[in-house]
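Open question from group meeting: does this chain pack into something compact, or does most of it stay loose? Before anyone orders reagents, we agreed to write out a predicted structure and look at it together. Recording both the input and the output here so the notebook holds the full record.
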Amino acid sequence: MRLATQRATVCQTIHKFEEEKTSTKRVLLAVLVASAVMLAVGIGPGRAGMAQALPLPAKANQEKVTIPYAGALSDPAGQPVADGLYDFSFALYAAETGGESLWSEVQEGVTVEDGVFEVALGRATIIPAAVLDGGARWLAVGVRGPAEAGFTQLLPRQRLSATSTASDSATAGLACPHDHVGEVWYANIAWSNGAFKVVNSGNGPTIWGWNGGGGNGLRGYATGTGLGVYGESQDGAGIVGRSTNGRGVEGYTTVVGQYGVYGKNESGAGGGIGVVGYAPNGVGVLGQGPGYGVYAKGDLYVEGYSTFAGGKSGYVVEVAQNDDVVPLEAGDVVVISGAGPAVMGEIPVIKVRQATARQAGAIVGIVDKHFTPAPEGNAAYERSKSAVNDAAIGPGEYLTIVTLGAYKALKVDASYGAIAPGDRLVASPNPGYAMRAVSPQPGTIIGKALGALPSGTGVIPVIVTLQ
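C-alpha cells returned:
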C-alpha cells in the first residue's frame, strides 16, 4: 500500500450505534469524516502512524475556534437515512469513557441530504481555549431524527487532536501539514456529496488556487454530461472570477450548439437573471462574431437607449391598446384614437381602432400580436416567458403594432382596384383593410405592397413606410 493511500485512510473513523424503541430496533451506521481531525505522517518506508497533537498558535487560542465536522447516516440496509432536519449533540471529554464533559453544545435543524451532513463545532457554544490546550480529547456525538424525543449516542467516542481546530484568524496553524503533489485519487461519489470536500466556517476562500507560472489557478474537467467546476452559494456568489490584467472568467467550447458560458436562473414565476455583466465605465456584456455577436431567443428588453452602428433587418413595433368595440387580429390596419398610461417605462400607450377611409389621416400601423404587460412593479426581464402571442386582441387588451419595416401580413381589399407590388396603400372603406391609392394625401400612406391581389379581399406582405 502506498503511503499516500494510508494517509487518506487514517483520517476516517467508523461508528456503529444502536437505538432501542418501544417496538422497533434499528442499527445505524455513521461514517464521520473530519478532514482535519487526525494528523497522519510517514514513519519509515511504507509505514504510517499517528503523530502527537500539536498545540494551537497562541493567538488562535484567544480567538473564536471552530472544528469542521462532516459525516453520513445510513439505515440498517446501508441506505442513506431520509432527508430532513436533524438535531445533533456534541461534547468533548478528556477520556474515551466516563468523566465530565469539558464542553458541549446542541445544533438543531441540521440539514441531512442523502444521509450527508456538515457542521462546524463551536458555532452554537464557544469552545473555551483551555479545552484546546494540546491534550488528547474525545468527541461524543448524539443524533435526534425528526419526531424523535431523545438523542441516540454514537459509540464509541471519537478521538480528536487539537490540530483539528480551525481558527477564524489567518494565523491559525494548518492541520495535517503535508502535500499530495503528483497523486491521483479515485472515487465514485454521488452528486449530493463530493470526492474531495473542504469545510470552511470563515469568510475566506474554501479553496485557493494560485499559479505563478502562466497556468491555471484552478482547473476542472469532466467527461460526459458532468460539470468541470461547480460552485454553489446560499447568499453570495457560487463562483467568482477576477483578473488584474486578463479575463476574470473564460468559457470555451468546440461543439456546435453548445455554450462557452451558460447562465441559468430557475427561480420560476417572478423570474430572475441568468447572466449579468456590469462595467461602470465600459461594456457590461460584449458579444463578438463572425456569427451573431448577440442572439436573443425570445424577447429582447432594452432599458435605455440603443445605438446601431450597422444595418437592421426586421420590423419595428409599438405597444398599443385596443380602443375599439371589436377584437383586432394580425394584419388589421389601425388608426390612432388617443393615448393611455404607460405599461413599459415612460412610453405612453397608443390607443387604436380599425381604420376606415374616413380616418385615413390618423393611420398608425398594422396589428402584429397580442401583448401582455409585466405585472406592476416588475421589469420586463423578470418574466420568464414571452410577452406576446398570436391570440386575437379583445377590446381593452394590449397589442403590438408594426410602424416600420417589412411585415408578413396586411389585409387588403382589391374591390377598389387591383393591387400590384409597389402600389401605395391607404385605408379603405372596409374597416381594417387597406386599398391601392391613386392620388394619396400626405399622412395617409401606410406603405407599399410587396405582393399582388387582382380582386376580392386577402392578405399580402407589405413594407410599412408611414408618410
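Observations to bring back to the group:
Helices lie at 3-10, 58-61.
Residues 136 and 294 are 62 Å apart (CA to CA).
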